[in-house]
Amino acid sequence: MFFSPHRASDRPDLDRLTALAKSATSSRLFMTFRMTDLTLIKAVLDESLPVFGVADRVYQGADGSGDRAIFEDAHSASPRVAACNAPLDDEPDENTLFKEIKRDGYNPLVHHKILLFDWDTPQCVVVTGSANYSANSTAHNDENSLIVHGDQRLAEEYVVEFCRLYTHWRPRWLRERDQHGAPPPEHLASDSSWTGAWAEGGRMAQFLDVATGGQGVAGSAPATHQTSGSPAAQSTATSARPQPASTAAGTGGAGARIQHVVVLMLSGTAQSHRTRPARGSFYSLTRV
Questions:
Q1: 148: which strand partners?
Q2: Tens digits of residue pLDDT in 200-212
């Protein structure tokens, strides 16, 4: 547990979280309002492991900033980061945050501050609290960061929530990003081009593999995120991946529950982004 503020020259919370991100062995997931610390962001986005994230918005920011690192990933051809609202092309000014918080109509604010490392292993780490992983949160604000080690059931609860948000927002982000400033398309793609991400080697196939603790599509890691080295070394690295927590500990059911969430999203039975679900309608899926 960390409480801030700390002295400006100290950053024990951010340094600890960076170390945890670097020591992850299975996957890194995050749901954050606005994470800006560049050192932590680099560790979280490192391509040595599968990484997926949900951010409220992405900011273009300045070259070499944490904002820019997340912005560039979210705007890549096969993004790992999904933003939940329209992209901001300009570097934020003093009014941007105010406008974001005070939105008109039902335009949900994703205000989580969650990091999830190795969710499917006995060494899982859940980070939660009020701090949004920035210099301001660690040096100027009264914040808290709670780090929970090895609680596999808690990690499963959080990864189900992550899957709910990620599968809801990623297609909306791609549509908004690609049509920014233009009228939205009236229909989805009429050909099979949209299926590529779900095929073996595609980004969403990799997501399913992470979300189900290795029970998803075999060989689903995209080439851009494979372990460096020879094919033999890559095969060894893959086979050495820790066993899912549910299998190792006998907790059972996490992969099935997460697949259920994903199926709900794909079948269109999830809530509209303009309407709220009945309280507990998604969380009930996480109960064994």
A1: 126
A2: 888 888 888 888 8
